[in-house]
Design a protein that fits this description.
- The chain is an alpha+beta fold.
- The chain folds into 2 domains: 2-98, no CATH class; 101-154.
- It has helices at residues 2-14, 57-64, 76-96, 101-153, and strands at residues 22-24, 32-33, 36-43, 46-51, 69-71.
Length: 166
């Protein structure tokens, strides 16, 4: 009985791992995600990023938990040449430390977001400055109103000032 269980475990260990690919539908995906090479492929009308074969079960499962990643279910033979050519290019870029097209677009997007954040901080500072000026003018206006009331209480009439042209 123990020998049969040992044989079954040995058979599983000897069985070749399933060769699986992932598809990433995120628009700015990199050519290398968690050490797995990806390449852009158009499936129908949709551009997607297809991975190299993933043998690491943990990496495969980890990426599947991320929104936008799904198991590859395409026709391997129909896209084999395109995928392999793209993966070769992705690996070359990665080896040279160069960003892929998705990474460049991602850097541009991050730069734009950083500029927007800085612009928002500048606007928030300006709003705070104007709010402070408004509070100071309101306080000054109240002081002038009190002085006018005091003069009118003494029987003096204060003529309204002409409004400045807008």
């Amino acid at each position: 009985m123990a020998d049969e269980n040992t044989e079954k475990k040995d058979d599983k260990a000897k069985a070749p791992k399933e060769r699986r690919r992932l598809v990433c539908t995120r628009p700015n995906a990199s050519h290398s995600i968690s050490g797995i090479a990806f390449t852009s492929v158009t499936l129908g009308d949709d551009p997607v990023h297809v991975s190299e074969h993933v043998d690491d079960d943990q990496a495969y499962e980890r990426l599947l938990r991320i929104p936008g990643f799904t198991p590859w279910s395409g026709d391997e033979k129909a896209h084999a040449r395109t995928i392999e050519d793209g993966l070769t290019k992705s690996r070359r870029l990665d080896a040279q430390g160069l960003p892929g097209p998705g990474a460049v677009a991602d850097q541009q997007l991050r730069r734009t977001l950083d500029e927007q954040r800085q612009s928002n901080r500048n606007l928030a500072a300006r709003i705070q400055e104007l709010t402070q000026q408004n509070a100071e003018l309101a306080a000054e206006n109240e002081t002038l109103r009190e002085k006018i009331q005091a003069l009118e209480a003494k029987g003096l009439r204060v003529a309204p000032r002409a409004q400045a042209a807008a």
